Fold each of these.
Amino acid sequence: MRRSRAFLCCLPVLAAFLSSEGAWSGQALERPSARPKGSGAVMLQGFHWESHLAQPWWDVLAAKASEIAGARFDLVWFPPSSAAMSDEGYLPNRLLVQDSAYGSQAQLKNAVASLRAKGVKAVADVVINHRVGTKDWADFTDPQWGPDAVASDDEWAGARGAPDTGKGYHAARDIDHTKVYVQESIKGWMRWLRSDIGYDGWRFDYVRGVAPEYFQMYVEATSPSFAVGEIWDDLDVNNSDRHRQALCDWLDSVAGRINVFDFTTKGILQHAVGAREYWRLRDGSGKPPGLIGWRPENAVTFVDNHDTGASTGGGGGQNHWPFPGDKVMQGYAYILTHPGIPCVYWPHYFDWGLRDHIRALIRIRKEAGIGSTSAVSIAAADNGRYAAVIDGKVAVKIGPADWSPGAGWVLALYAKDYAVWTR
C-alpha cells in the first residue's frame, strides 16, 4: 500500500452540561497526544447549481457576509464568474469579462470585498480545462486565442494544437496548455482576478483534463492563499484504497501545493450511513478510510456540492450522487469533527433548516482547535454506530446505536442519530 506522504430538520439543537452516564453506554477512552493541527479553515460553498436564477447572486453573497463570518467560515467558494455560454458558468468563453448570469463585475467585486472586510477569503472557481467560442466553436476573444489553442484530438475539425495532456471534455473545446502564449494568458488572467477582483484562492474545475504540471505552474505564478482541485472518479466502496491512492498520486504530482476534494470520504461515508454499515468508516489499519486517513492536510471534505446534491430543500439541481437526505447531519457531524478542511454546502446551511446544527458543530470544532491534521482515535465502527475521539478533545458518535466516551465528557450537541461531546 503506497501512501506518499427530508427528516431534514433534525431535533432542535441541544447543548447541555449533562452526565455521560445513563442511556449512553461505553468505556472511558485513552486521551491521545495531539499533533500540529494544520489548517483550521472551514469553507462554505457559496452557491448551488441554480443560484444564477436568484439574480443577482453576487448581491445575495454580499448581503450574507456578516452571517457567514459570524458562523466562523474562513473561505467562501464562488461559482465561475467569467462570461459563459452556460448560465452556471462552466462553459466559459470570455475569461476577462466578469459580467455573468450571477451579476455584474461591480456586484462581484462588492461581494468579494464584503466578505473580505469580515475576514472571509473568496475562492474563485477556475475553469481552464476547456473553453467555448464567443459566437462559434472556437472564435476565442477576451483573451483572443487561435485554433492552435485547441488540442488536436478535440472534436472540433479546426483544432491545430498539440494532443490533449489529460482527459477530454466533449461539451467544449479542450485547451492546449503546452502553448506558451496560452499559459501566459491564463497566468495574466488569474493574476488580474487576484489583484483587481480580489480573489484569494482557487478551486480548479475538472483537473483530470490537464496534466498536473500546468496547475502547479498556475498556482506558483499566482500565489493563492488556498487552492483545491476536483478529481471525481468512480469509487468502489469495497476498495477505497485504490481511489484515495489516485488522489495521493495527484497530490504528489503537484508537490502538495494544491489540495483535493476528498471524494473517497464522501463516497464511503454516505454509503455507510445509508446502508447502516458504519464499520466501513475504519480501514484495515484502524484509520479513516478516505483521504483523511492518509493525507488529511490536503483533504477538503464535503457532504454534497453543486454536482452531487440538490439545489434547495425542495430539490432541483443535478443530484448526480446525493448524500442520503435524512442523514445529512450525520455527514456533517463526521466531517466537522474530523481532520481535513471541511466544506459546507450552501443549501444545507441556508435552505434545509440545518443552520443551527451546522453552526454549532463549527463552533465546537473551532473552540477545540480541531484542524486538518488532528488525530483520530476510532472507538467503535459496526453496523449500528461509528464513534471516535479527535485530539482527545472532541468525541463524536453517528448512527442509531448508543455509545458514550465515558466519564469526564460533557454532551455538547445531539439530534437524531448523532451526538458530540467535549472535555
Note: The longest strand covers residues 121-126.
Amino acid sequence: MSAAILATILFSLSAVSGKRLSHYLTAIEANMIRFIISALLLGIYSNYYGIGLGGGAFGMFFISGIIGFGVGDYGLFRAYKIIGSRLTMVMTQCLAAPFAATVEWLWLGSSLSLGQVLAGVGILVGVSLALAPNDTMQIDKKRWKNGVFWGLLSAFGQGLGAVLSRKAGMMVDAGVSIDGLSAAYQRVLGGLAVMLVLFIGQKIITHKHNNYNSRAGLDSVSIKWIFLLVLANALCGPTLGVGAYQWALNVNDLPAGIVLSVVALSPLVIIPFSMKFEGERPTVRSLIGSIIAVVGVIIMTNMVVK
C-alpha cells in the first residue's frame, strides 16, 4: 500500500502544477513536453538499471500508455482548465476505480461482491454531489458540461489503462522481474506517441489557418516559470508518480481497483493546495460529495484486501 499512497501524494502535486500549466500551454503541448522529459529520465534509469524495453510485455504496456496517458491525460488537462484541479481529480481518481473494477470483472474475471457494487454506487453519488453546479461557480453551464465530459474521458482512460497495465504485468516473461519505473517507461512511450501525432496534426491545422502563437511575447520570467511547472509536473506525474503507481500494480501485484481506490484520496489531499494556489472556496455540498466518494473507494479497497 505504501507505493499507492506515495503515488497519491505525487499525483496531487502533479494536479496543482498541471492546473497552473494549463493556462500557459494547450493540453497537447503540455503533455508532449512533460512526456518527453519523463521518457528521457525513465529511459536513462530503465536502460541502465532496469529492463529497458524488455520483459516480453512491451506491446501491452505501450497500448496501456496510449489509453492511460494519451487519452486519460489529454482529458485531464482539458478538464483542469475548465473545472479546476480539485473537481477534475474527484472525477478522474474516484470514477477510475469503479471503471477499472468493472473492466477487470468483465475481462480478467475478478469477482465483485455486493458490497463492492454498493461502494461503487456510493462513489458515483459522491462524485455527482461534488460536481453538481451551484450559484457560486464562475462557469457557464455549457463549459461546465465540457469540463465534465473531459473529466469522464480522463477517468475512463485512467481506469482502462490501469487494467491493461496489470494485464501487461501478467504477460512478463517467466523469470523476469519488472520494476515500477521500467513499467512506467514502457507506458509513457505510448502516451508520447499519441501526443506527437496530435501535436503534428495541430501544427498542420494551425498553419493552414494562419494562426499566430499568442505566447510569442512571453518574457524570460514567464518562460522560466513555465519550465519549472512542466518539470514539476513531469516529475510528480508520469515519472515518479506513475513509477510508484506501477510499483503498486506490477511489483506488489495489487488489483487495479485497489490501487486506484487508494489514489482516489487525491481529491482530499489536494483541497488545501487548490484553496491556496487556485483561490478555490469549495461549497459544503462539494466537500461532502468528495468525502462520500473517497469513503466509497476506501470501503471498496478494504473489501478487496480482506
Note: The mean pLDDT is 82.
Amino acid sequence: MQSSKIGVQIVSSGILSDDTLMLGESHLKKWQIPQGQTVRLKFGAFRGDVKVIPVQRYDGMRISQALASRLGLHAPCTLRMRYRRGARELVLGPLVGVLISRDYPHHPDRPFGAITGFCRELVDAAKLLGGAVYVLTPAMLGSSVSRLDAWVWADGWRRVKAPAPDVVNNRLTTRKLENKTSVQHFFREVKSRFGTQVFNEKFLDKSEVFNALRKQPALGRFLPESHSFTGFPMLQAMCSRYATVFLKPVRGSLGKGIIRIVRLPSGGYAAHHATTLGTKRQQFPTLQKLYASLSGRLRSGRYLIQQGLHLIESQGRPIDFRALVQKNGSGQWIVTSIVARIAGSQHFVSNIARGGTLSTVREAIAKSNLAAGRQDAPARLRSAALQIAAGVDAQIPAHFGELGIDLALDTNGRVWLLEVNSKPSKNDNTPLSATGIRPSVRVMLRYARYLAGL
C-alpha cells in the first residue's frame, strides 16, 4: 500500500504526553491502526513506543514538543506515513540528511555557502511532497551516530539534535573530506545499524569509469580510446593514431589541468593548456621535446590519455552536452535535464567556469556544423546518457542516485562519452518551476521516499 501524506503539528507537552500522539480518525481507519494501544513509532533511527489517540474531523497528526524534539522536528511539517500491521510499526519520513563539506554559522543568510539555496529547495520540496530534511557536515559528526548534530529549517536555520536519517545524500566536494575516518565510520555505522541508504557515496575518477564501461560491449561505441597514461611510448603511440589527443587529470574537474596535443601539418606538435584566462599554447619541433616540457607535471599526478574527437562547433567553439540523470520514485534512471555547453572564444573546454555558455540542445545543434542526424540527435544523447548510467550502476560497486554525464557529438553525428561526475553541480541550470523548486530536487526527494519505503 502507498504511504499517506500527513501534516504534523507540535503541541505543548502539557497537553499531550510524549508517549502519545493524536491522529485523524480517517487515517486510523485506512491503515487499521489500533486505538489506545501501544505501537512502535519509527522515524529515521528513532524507535519508540507510543499510543495513538483518534481525533474526529481531523486529517493530521499532533505530537508533543518533547517527542518532536526527540525526532529533531522543531516546526510544523508534512511527512509520509504508513503502518506495518505485522510489526505494529508506524513509520514516518523519509528523514533525509544532506552531508555537505562545511558550514558558515556566522552567515545566517548563507550558512552553507553556494549550496544554501539547494538545501532550502529540498526543505520546500519535502513540505510539498512529504518528508523532513536536515544538513550536516563532517565536523558535526561525533562518536554517536544514533543522535546527530544537524541543521534544520524552522523560520531560519538552527542547530538541533536529530536521529540518524533514512537516506544520506553525500554532497562532499573533496576526496579528502570523503575519506576522513569519521565520515567513513559514519557511513558504515548508519548503514549497518539502521539500514540507512547512502547515495552518491563516492567520487568517480576518469580511468575507473572508462575501464568499468569497457566491460559492457554495448557501451563501447560511446567510448573514445582511453588509457591510463604510463609515459612517452604511450604518448607516441596515441599521437601516431590520432592528430589530436588529450591528457586529462584522472581526478580533475571544471576543465582544470587538461592538455590538448595537436600534430601540426607543418611538422612538430602544439600543446594547449586550459587556464582560467584562456588557452595557453606552446609549440615544439618534436614530440620528445613536448614530452620533456610536460614530464614534470605528468609525474605529479595520474592522467588519462584520450583520443581527440572532431566535435561539432558553433562559430569555431566546441559544443558538448551535460545530462543530469537521476533515479526516480521507482528507482529507475531518468534524464531530468540535458543542456548544451558552448566553449568560450578563448577556450577548448566548455565548462561554465572557463567562460562557456549554455544553450538548449536543439538550438545548439541547429547552429552547429553537424553534418547529419540533426533531428534525432537529442534522443540519441538521452538514450546514451541512460545506458551509461545503467553501466556505471552495474559495473562500479557503489550506490549512485544521480550522475552528471558529459557527452559530445562529432561532425558525423556519433555520440561520445567525455566524463561521468558523481557530484553534479546543484546549479544545474534547469528552470525553476512555479513553486521555485527545480525538477531535479523533486526527483531526488521522490527517490529518497522510494529508498525509505514511503
Note: The chain has eleven helices and 25 strands.
Amino acid sequence: MKEQELYLCAMQILDGQLVAGAVKEELTIRVAQLVAEGRKVPHLAAILVGNNGASETYIGSKVKTCQDIGFKSTLIRLPEDISEFKLLNSIHDLNRDPDVDGILVQLPLPKSISDENVINAIDPFKDVDGFHPSNAGRMLQGLPTFLPATPHGIMLLLEHYKIDTRGLHAVVIGRSNIVGRPMSILLSNNSNPGNCTVTICHSHTKNLDEICRSADIIVAALGRAEFVTGDMVKEGAIVIDVGITRVPDSTKKRGYVIRGDVQFSTVATKCSFITPVPGGVGPMTIAALMKNTYKACIDKN
C-alpha cells in the first residue's frame, strides 16, 4: 500500500454533525426535565438585519435547533436600512425582557452600523455568543463565562474524540475576536483539550508555510477558500477548518459550492484528524450556542 493510502486509512473525520447531535440530545433531555418540574425553559432571541442569504441560512439553523430541543425562540427581522439607534433600542428591549435568556445579533451587519456598539449593548448575562468585552475578559482570566460559540464548539469536538492536546504546537490562522483570538486562549489554557503552545498567524506573518508545517494542530479561520494546502501540513497533523465560503460554480443548481479554508483533497491524506466542510465546525457552533443559552437560563433561574 502506498504511503499516501496509509495516511488516508489512518485519518479520522471529526464529525461535527454526530457530536452536535449528541449535545442536542443531552439538552433535549434536560429541557424535558425542566418542563416536568414546571420550571422555565430556555428562550433564545435572535435579531436578523436585512436578508443576506448566508445569514438567513445560519439563523434558520439556529431557530430550528431551538425547536428541536424544546427551547423557546424569537426571531426579530429588521430592514437593511434600519438605523443603529433603532437596532440598539431593540436590543435594550430584549435586555429588559425577563423571559429572554439569550440574545444574539446575526453578523455581519450593514456597514452603517457599528458591530462594537451592538455587541457592547447586549446584557453580558444574555450574551450567549460570548462576544461582550466582559465575557471576553472573564475567558481570558479563566473564569466561568459564555465562551464564543465557534471556539467553544471546537473544544467540545476535540473533547468528544478524546484528543490529547497537551504539549502540542497549535497554529491558529486568523486573529478575529470571534474565532482566532479566543481559540488561541482556549488551546493554551491549563486544561485538556488545551495546554498547547500556540502560534497566531495573520496576513503579515512571514514564512507562514514553514510555521504551518511545524504545527501539530492547525486551526484555519481566515475566510479564504482552500488556502491551506497539502504542502503546508505535516503528516499526522490535526486540522480544524473553520472557513465556509460560497465559491461560484455554474454547474451547480445553486450556482455555488461551499468550500472551507482547507483544501480537503490534498490535506486529508496527511492528517490524523480533520473536520469536513460542511458538517464539521458549523454544527458544533450551533451546539455550543445552545449550551450557552441553557447555561444562561439555569444561571438566572
Note: The two ends are 59 Å apart (CA to CA).
